């Protein structure tokens, strides 16, 4: 498209960004509020951060969420990459249409439906084959891997489609077996997409309240579950402090990944062989 | 088919079949059983007694959904709220996507990044932020009363209005992204041709740009509409007791009433209602995936 941005466009965009960022900014400002009242300013204080760090339940839940998100994102990257290869590189096979819908449907499926259906599956499995014996970290992990796989597949397959197929063909013509073509040629090229897919899956897993509430069991409370039950009791500056930390970590993580991806892209353009 | 090819296909295939497709079959099955005070809290469809296998299909859950008008009202108001929120979202997002797509390529990526960035922080916490803004002694009311424009707080939290704000706020990036992708692919020469032929900018937009961005509008709308219909967090935190939405009804049926069969029937009917939008979304997405 064109390269002209009118002042009207600039104004609209600015308003849009104010709408997107003002609520987050307000959350951050009130995390430094001395008063317990979240909406009335009572002076600067960092005491809520101190309370947050002493909250054993919150820290335990955060660690549980972190473990689940790490494992879920890593497994989803493997499964999601396989799924993208199947969709983009494998041509037609019997059952491909069904496979395609199992990749796209989780992207929009209301969480209450996914949560309920997975819970009923786990209960039915425990009844018939005795596994998984109880609900907890493992069942949350399986649930998260399943919906994260769909998101990773979208990110990775778009990169796979854009990449230059002739590099793979050249390697194949030189006699490389398919697995070698994948690991030595395809994988390094789609690596930035794997990183963004992993980050996306990690955040989605870390963030999930609804599905985890359905499939969790005693002793496997995740961070969003603790936040939700605390928020139900009323606003709390401690949650604002937690929000500030999450915003800080997410922003640093995403900006670093973005910067790395851009650096990889500009480098590959500068390489004499990269731009074929 | 080679062994390697088969195994690459079958691993994600089996995983998704077992953990995405089969669960729906089980939900469907349990929606025909009866609530029971046992573990698990529902009756078996098949019973074996006196060398007879009996299949008991209990249609009571579905009959119940259609006799108690709570459920029908919840379905209808969920669809209405989701549809209105989707339209507002489309109107807010289109200009954003349009302006970003027309920006110089150096700033385009950064602007897009700024739109997506909020969705990388917790959904729950972003909705929570609006509680403090919208409530009776919240920031908007305090500000307006300080200005002297109003002397009684306006009730905004626990209304349908708050739910619209929440949905538009949380789902805006999902509308902007497909619109942006679509507008970026637009062939510039078509726009130039139209204006060379004397069409004023607004006419170029209405007759060329808008029809060509239909695919992006459909994809974005489905990405907002479908999850919004079953949304739980937003109506629960911002909608109050007055706002009836089916995701919240399902949650309460499951967690408060512990009636798994009725919750399953609620889920099946919701799925049937969403089948058409999901198919629409899938058709767009499949074209994007294969291309």
Fold and architecture overview:
The complex is a heterodimer of chains A (276) and B (291). With 276 residues, chain A is an all-alpha fold. Chain A has a single domain, classed as MetI-like (MetI-like fold, Orthogonal Bundle), CATH 1.10.3720. Chain A has 11 helices and no strands. In chain A, helix 3 packs parallel to helix 6 (137-162), helix 3 crosses helix 10 and helix 4 (96-108) crosses helix 6. Residues 270-276 of chain A have low confidence and may be disordered. Chain B is mostly helical and 291 residues long. Chain B has a single domain, classed as MetI-like fold. Chain B has a two-stranded antiparallel sheet with strand order 1-2. In chain B, helix 2 packs across helix 13 (260-290), helix 10 (214-229) runs antiparallel to helix 13 (260-290) and helix 12 (246-255) crosses helix 13. Chains A and B meet through helix 1, helix 3, helix 4, helix 5 and helix 6 of A and helix 1, helix 3, helix 4, helix 5 and helix 7 of B.
Extended strand count of chain B: 2
The fourth-level CATH homologous superfamily of chain A is: MetI-like
State the end-to-end CA separation of chain A.
25 Å
Architecture of chain B, according to CATH? Orthogonal Bundle
Mean pLDDT of chain B: 89
Structural domain tally of chain A: 1
Helix content of chain B: over 70%
Q: How many helical elements of chain A?
A: 11
Beta-strand content estimate of chain B: under 5%
Strand content of chain A: under 5%
CATH architecture of chain A: Orthogonal Bundle
What Rg of chain A do the Cα atoms give? 23 Å
| Low-confidence runs of at least 5 consecutive residues of chain A | 270-276
Distance between the termini of chain B: 24 Å
Number of contiguous helices of chain B? 13
Query: What is the share of helical residues of chain A?
Result: over 70%
The ordered string of helix (H) and strand (E) elements of chain B is HEEHHHHHHHHHHHH
CATH class of chain A: Mainly Alpha
What strand order characterises the main sheet of chain B? 1-2
**Major sheet of chain B:** 2 strands, antiparallel
